[in-house]
Amino acid sequence: MPLLKVNRERLKRSMDQISTIGATPRGGMHRLALGDKDRQARDLLKRWCMDAGFPVRVDPIGNMFARRAGRHSDSPPVVIGSHLDSQCMAGRFDGPVGVIAALEVLRTLDDQRVVTQAPIDLVNWTNEEGARFSPPLLGSGVFTGAHDLDFALRQTDKEGLSVQQELVRIGYAGAGPVTLPVRKYIELHIEQGVVLEQAAIGIGVVTGFVGIRDTKVTVLGQSTHAGPLAMDSRRDALVGAAGMILAAREIGLAHGPDARVTIGKLAIPSDSHSVVPGCVEMVLDVRHPDAHRLNAVVFALQQRFRAMATDSGLAVHFEDSWYYPPVVFDSGLRSQIAEAAAGFGYSHMELPSRAGHDALNMARVAPTAMIFIPCRAGLSHNELEFAEDQDIAAGADVLLAAALAAAR
Amino acid sequence: MPLLKVNRERLKRSMDQISTIGATPRGGMHRLALGDKDRQARDLLKRWCMDAGFPVRVDPIGNMFARRAGRHSDSPPVVIGSHLDSQCMAGRFDGPVGVIAALEVLRTLDDQRVVTQAPIDLVNWTNEEGARFSPPLLGSGVFTGAHDLDFALRQTDKEGLSVQQELVRIGYAGAGPVTLPVRKYIELHIEQGVVLEQAAIGIGVVTGFVGIRDTKVTVLGQSTHAGPLAMDSRRDALVGAAGMILAAREIGLAHGPDARVTIGKLAIPSDSHSVVPGCVEMVLDVRHPDAHRLNAVVFALQQRFRAMATDSGLAVHFEDSWYYPPVVFDSGLRSQIAEAAAGFGYSHMELPSRAGHDALNMARVAPTAMIFIPCRAGLSHNELEFAEDQDIAAGADVLLAAALAAAR
């Protein structure tokens, strides 16, 4: 039997249509988890699935599952999908590519009247990004037991609205079991890096996840009025934090091409033009594929920050925020993905994921793998994020083949 | 006639009592303008004034005026006072010292049955700090025509609540004229610096205001995901801003002991642990007693920031936020304050104010002066802000004598 391919026109049409919901003027996406735009995107996905005859189940944390039945209705499903929520003013491919390609896989199997042994479930995970509710990967975290349902429902956004309130408001507070057995999990996603683009390779066979360790850093000085006190008598926490931000970059670069050190959140509680900051709060995000090297980077940063604080009469405190150790994906699924790519004649290579995805949670409960496709200049979490139609279609073809192999 | 002195016990009792409203665990004050605590403090002040027979008028922006009548009811009043609102988690002396001392002045004049020619008005200005509603000095700004009433009422806090809504909610949306003629304005305040403390001087005769220029600085790089893109390919706006924060301190120090450069507000719109910041917004606050030197500091900062941005592939934009040129206080009032201090045998010296006060607005419409008293270690906008009882009492004595001289 020749390898099945997805319907490229339908795939592109669906991508274009879902991309209008929350579209920004510069071609990006602003669709925060459980907001009105997320509701509209969920409603559209639900309608598409129902129209095609794939019943949709919503679980208590709002994860959406659309099922294409298999011969054995009792068999745990092969699950494929990703997320429809976005970061603030970000891109339209990060997440939706995996969800819409999964829908296209189900539709193509119907077109071709393919019967699988196991059911195949499309999934749309709740609050993958963590841009509105912390922590990220929330829906898959509840599904895989990383978080209690109650904990997740209690989380609030900046306005004090809880996950529970918002799920009820947008009509996605589902029922039924919080988790169910999964046969295999496969997620298609843009790379969000430049490895595939620079190698001119179309399909990334993801080997696993780099480890991620986040630390809350609090720099303490002395808050005072911006006018009277002489500048050389100040103990300015923001000046201290600025030195640490520059040191963080330097230490990250010094630990080689696999290390990433980022400060993406910084708050000054006093928040006034006329107050010398006495306190600055930052989040330090460190990533490395090797757990020991990861901890060495974190240790080096904390050592340096402590020394800098002492030198300038400041104090610094660290609080572990979260830690995802490095993950290695299922070797069988990786081989199937590589073989599928080769079968289609698509160039492919192995590479790790340096970003968190719901597959990180799923790898704890089921054989898991991911397929990456290139995105332009590695830009992501940015309105200018872009993936070519043919790369999305090739990724969907490989997802189809891998899901079929897993569900047979 | 011997010089009148205030009732020190009553002054201390009133200071202690008003300090309980919005008190923080470390002995500080959190009483944001037009919040519930500000309402309670206003209610207490109003009750004290009414009980003592000083009728209270509330104007359309919520400024409170309590009048002790003079012989000539048509004469413009001598106005004395300050503000009861505070910064976030700040001190309990910045503002209330001037209001409660003014109350004590009126009470002492009643005790001694002193008759003045002009009325003396105690004033409590609305939203001096600007911690909740921008701009600061809002109430005196409306009173002196620096801001339109409509503009002031439309300003909103972070939750989107307007000045107008909050004035109505707490019962301080007054009526009547927005402004009235003022004979003289005198404000007692803590120095918020270390000049008096280091010179061991009890009374500061304030010569005027340093100029203040605030600029919004926007640093633009490229927002991207914290994981995939190599660190040396990033254009991180926060790393760029960090260099500018250090340069701002260096340039401030290089411009001599009279220059102040502060960054007290910084926001990252993307605000996510996993997003390399593509944009950082800061407020640059520059102060200098000489207008030409002030502009030279601002120019040097902008030149340096532009060069730094260019060097690191970033962009930087500047937007003038506000400018208060330097102000020189009324020489007659300054002499009266110095003579009063000498009459009491209190040590005194001249010094400029490096912080903004409502007197800055009042100097545009009436002969104006300020009296400073020492505060410990120059700490202000800080919970540990502290002024000694005897310094507050000495300041109140001088305020009493200066007001009496002005109102005779």
UniProtKB/TrEMBL annotation, chains A, B:
Keywords: Hydrolase, Metal-binding, Zinc. Binds 2 Zn(2+) ions per subunit. The keyword Repeat does not apply. Zn(2+) 2 binds at residues 94, 129, 381. CDD domains: M20_bAS. Its cofactor is Zn(2+). Belongs to the peptidase M20 family. This is Amidase, hydantoinase/carbamoylase family. It comes from Verminephrobacter eiseniae (strain EF01-2).
